[in-house]
Every structure is written in C-alpha cells, then in structure tokens.
Leucyl aminopeptidase family protein (Sphingomonas panacisoli), 460 residues
Amino acid sequence: MTDFAALLQADRGQSARTIEVVHPDVYTDWLKGQPKRIRALLDAQKVTGKAGNKAILPGDGDDWSALLVCDEDLSSPWRIASQPGFLPEGAYRLKSGEVGAAGLGWLLAQYRFERYVKPDKDGGPRVLLTNDPASIDETVRLAQATALVRDLVNTGSSDMGPAELEAEAEKLAKRHDAKLTVTRGDALTKGYPMIDAVGRAAAKHRSPRLIELEWGNPKHPRVAVIGKGVCFDSGGLDIKPASGMRLMKKDMGGAAHALALASLVMGARLKVRLHLLIPAVENAISADAFRPGDVLATRKGLTVENTNTDAEGRLVLGDALTKAGEDKPELVIDYATLTGAARVALGPDLPATFVNDETLAGDLLSVGTAVYDPLWRLPLWDGYDDYLKSDIADLINAPDNGYAGAVTAALFLRRFAPEGVPWAHLDTFAWRPTAKNGRPKGGEAYGLRAAWAMLKRRYV
C-alpha cells in the first residue's frame, strides 16, 4: 500500500513549490494583475480561466509555481486532487488558505494498485505541506482505509477468496489486539445455515465461513459492522451471463468496506465495543450447489424459500444480522454490493441507504454531504412486504415481479435485523467505472467516510 504518511507533512518552512488556486469567477481579475510575460505564457498554453485549467508559471531563475483554476468548494477533498498527476515529484504548499480536506484528495490521487503490474515509473512522491499538523494522522488513516477498500476490491478473485478475507481480518486483529473468531465446517452448517448453503458448492480451499472480530471495552456501547463477503458470484445455478459476471470479483466490496471502517474505529480508539462480522463465501456451481426452490433454514429460525440463487448476498447477511442482534448492539451498520436495482436507480456514486431510525438516517445523510461522501435514502416501504410472501415457507428471498429490487432486498434483511435497534443498510457499488481526480477507475469506497464521520460524532 502507498505510504500516505510520507505525502502529507507539517509545514516548517522547508523548501517547496507553490500552488495557487484561482476560482473561475475571479480569474479575469487575477490575470489582469499578472506581468505581461505570464499573461502571454498562459495564452500560449490556452488557459482561459475554465475550471480544470492548470499551468506551470515561471519565477526567478529556476524557480516556478503551479496554477490551478478550480471551482471546487474550499471544503472539498477533491479541490487539488488533479495536481499530483500533473506536477513532478517534490514538495508543495498552497499559496493561500489551509489545506483542510483537500489533503485527503492529494493522498488518494497518488494511490496505485500495482499487484499485477510493474510499478509505474512516474517519479517520486508529491508531498503536500500543511499548517495544521494535528489533522495529518486522521487524513492519513482515511486515505489508508479508502486504499484498503480499493486494494481488496481490485484484487482478482483467484487471490481474494474467503481465506484471504479471513487473513485481512487477522491482520487487523493482531494490529489492534482484537479477538478473532472464525466459524466454519459443521459449526457453520448448524449455526449459520444460510451462509453454509450459499458457500458450500465452492472448492474446499474456498469454503464458507463467518469471520468475527471483537475489540474495545465491553462496557462501551456495542456497535456491529457487517460486510457482505461474496468473493465471487457466478449467480449459482441461476447463472449470470458473461457480462454480469465480469466484475463479480467486487461482490466482496461490502466486506472491504466493513474491514476499512473497523480499521478506522480501532485506529482512533473510539469508545465502542466493536463487533465486525463478515460472512465470507463464494457463490459457485457444483453438484452440491443450493437450488432454486430449496427451503433454507436460518439462524433466526425462519424458513426461506430460495427463488433465485443469484440473490445470495441477502441470505448470508441474514444469518450475520441475526448473530449481531444476539449480542445486544446499540447500533448496526451493514455494507453490501447487493442489488443491480440500486445502481439502476442511483448510479455508481450514491449508495442506496435504508435506515430504520430517523435520527440515525438524519445523521448519516448530513455528515455524508458534509464530507463529500453522499448517501441517498430509499424507503423501507412496508407496502412491499407482501412481495416476500411464500406459499410454503416464512418468506422468499427474491420476488420475481421486477419491482423495487433494492427495497425488497432491504425488507428481506429487516426480517433479520435486531428489533428496536437502529440499523443502516448501505447497498453500495464498490466500483468506479470512470476515473475522476483522485478517484481512479476500479474499486472504490462509497459511504465509508460518511459512516466514519457519524461514528466519530457519537462515540469520540
């Protein structure tokens, strides 16, 4: 992983180039105040004052500075995220104003996933200097957590199965002196039958398991964080077409988010009793695969008629939610790359967010907007509960009427969430299809910083 700590440093007056950020609305006035040679140079480079324009400006001798025309708000983490890819290695400081949230974008713009390729020889690090050294540790932790999501999701499924998710959880447990428990084999079959059913068709070395990590003072409020860990989703016997299977390495994106959020909680030593749960499986095809029409037992005692083996994420999450509720949490958050319906409705950038508590919903949405990690709330609409009715079991896992797919998936999970406990379900894409400044194409964290900001406000 990129050494982000080296890229954001306290400004102690060391030698550095200057970055001047000019808003498009004041660019014309700014330009009038520049020497004639600078105006001519900018004209030659076709800098017109449009947002995104950038240039190198000469100084005296071998000195130079950078210009960025930017319309991003001062609180945006992406304000100067275009610069590390434009500027050569070296140290930089803003000509005016504080770095603030822009430090995160500066770091994430230098993220690279190079597990399968030779490192890009684009020079050394681009270091940003800040007058607020107290903010460095938090910014670096956020960058590391985001990079963890990106790394795990970008990794090919051949190298990211249930065992590898377990290894990631074990690393976190050792780093923060947490307790790790892994349930597999007969204990999984008896105790978590839906997790076992979904994952039992996989090869032995990719066998299903429930990964649990507990950390913190038992006297502190208990917070459960759950992540869907489907390490590859073929669709099962209801097999996906090739186009639908292409990105299914990312179907463990919920687990990646949960691991990253847990790392932030433990790294900041929040005053909580953290309970991390990751049902880790591969939804494979074999003679032992679960079938359409099977009636599945559950940890909660309900019976589920399986109407679609490609609606497996909600099954493994159901058992994990039940387990989380048994330990009397004060708050439950789950992340899952759950439904294509959420992407159709909201696209890749907005996690469909379902919350059973108005205070929690308000907190999540407000802080998400504040930290530029937006969420969009969809309803837990009681009127669609009838869509989950079964003729032979307590409920089905997936209606076939084509309506409100993200909502009905959330309603299914609600049957297993602990009653009377604030619960948030984030149906996230975990993938960025098109690159933006500081945000390369590939695995991405959506809703991570929003949940973290909410937890910090409540439990710092």
